[in-house]
Every structure is written in C-alpha cells, then in structure tokens.
Design brief:
- The complex is a heterodimer of chains A (about 120) and B (about 110).
- With about 120 residues, chain A is mostly beta strands.
- Chain A contains no helices and 12 strands.
- In chain A, strands 2, 5, 6, 10, 11 and 12 form a 6-stranded mixed β-sheet that branches. Chain A has a 4-stranded antiparallel β-sheet with strand order 3-9-8-7, with no helix packed on it.
- In chain A, a hairpin with a 4-residue loop joins strand 8 (about 65-70) and strand 9.
- In chain B, about 0% of the residues lie in helices and about 50% in strands.
- By secondary structure, chain B is mainly β.
- Chain B has strands at about 5, 10-15, 20-25, 30-35, 45-50, 55, 65, 75-80, 85-95, 105, 110-114.
- The chains are: A mainly beta (about 120), B mainly beta (about 110).
- Chains A and B meet through strand 5, strand 6, strand 10 and strand 11 of A and strand 5, strand 9 and strand 10 of B.
Chain lengths: ~120, ~110
Amino acid sequence: AQTVTQSQPEMSVQEAETVTLSCTYDTSESDYYLFWYKQPPSRQMILVIRQEAYKQQNATENRFSVNFQKAAKSFSLKISDSQLGDAAMYFCAYRIFLQGGSEKLVFGKGTKLTVNP
Amino acid sequence: NAGVTQTPKFRILKIGQSMTLQCTQDMNHNYMYWYRQDPGMGLKLIYYSVGAGITDKGEVPNGYNVSRSTTEDFPLRLELAAPSQTSVYFCASSYSQGPQETQYFGPGTRLLVL
C-alpha cells in the first residue's frame, strides 16, 4: 500500500528561527516523486517544493529545503528564517502513476505550523 | 491567467439534494482531478480525467459523477447528498505526467450536508 506518514500533528516556531517537518512514506517503486504542499487558511493547496527520487541532491527553493533519505524513505521539510506568512497546514505527498497515463497524489494527514512573533 | 477556479466557495445542502461543483482551468491542461479533504486528513482522489471525453474513478468515487466535455471544464456532480459527503472539495489540473509536472490546485469548495 502507498502511504505517507506525518508524525507531527502540530509544530510551532519562533519568527526568524528554523523548523523541520517530518515525513515518511512507503513504496515499492524505485522511481517516484515527493512533494510538500502548503495550505493556508484560504484552503488553497500551494506547491512548496518537490523532489525526484532519482536525484540524490536535496531540492531547495529559497528558504525551503528538504532532507531526502531514500533508503530510510524519509522526506523532511526545513523552513529557514520562518516568517508569519509560513503559518499553515503542510502536507507531504507522494506521486504514483495510474492506468491511462494519469497520476495520483497520496497525501499525509498534515502538520499544522504556527509561527510565533 | 486565472489558473484553476472553482465555484461555489461554500454551499449547504440538505440530505438527498443534488448539486454540481464547477471547476475550470485556463492553462490548457490535459489532466484534471477531483479530491476531497475531510477534517484533519489529507486529500483523497475522487475522479480524474486524462482529456476531454475520458474520465476514470479514483479512490473514493461512490456518490459522485463527473463529465469532461471540454479541456477547460471538469464538473463534479453529487447525487442524493449524504452527511458523509460533508468535506472540502479540491479540483486540480496538470499538463501531463512528465517528471517536471505537478498538479495545480483550485481554492476549494466547502460543502456542508445537513
């Protein structure tokens, strides 16, 4: 079964500090893609960062970076210099391919991040 | 370029009523998806489409129907609404399944069935 586990239902961080959100996943495939999505109170899902499993180098997008450990099936998100606007639900997701050429994202249950001023 | 738009933003339905959730994308994407998000949970795939005229079931299709007559539109139909369908519904689209592709989400529709 394809599963994504986020073990931290809630996290908090002081503004300007660094926080790491955890994610583990279960797959038997060797080639896949991992994503972190941010969901602010507006409820829209916003892509934060993605990682291709065949790439050893960890993805980075400005203040957001990942620690991808393929053997351990771990995909954590690090947010540096946290800002008040980073407060949101964060979802880790794993992408699998379906018949017909389409795809499906398997989501974790999310981590609620609070940023304290 | 508005991306993925959804209407309505919020709706209250009585048990047994029907409604259609609208989804439109202006990015000329071939692939479109409907997800539902229950409180405290991640998203689950309801239906998806790989192009106009082609749809298929996702993980939780029961109680829903879809159609895809154009590339831009992918409406989700709820027949005989039930309290279990209270959820937030997200529409998403992607151009293809290539390694650089990702899904773009709409703002969501919150549905309450009483």
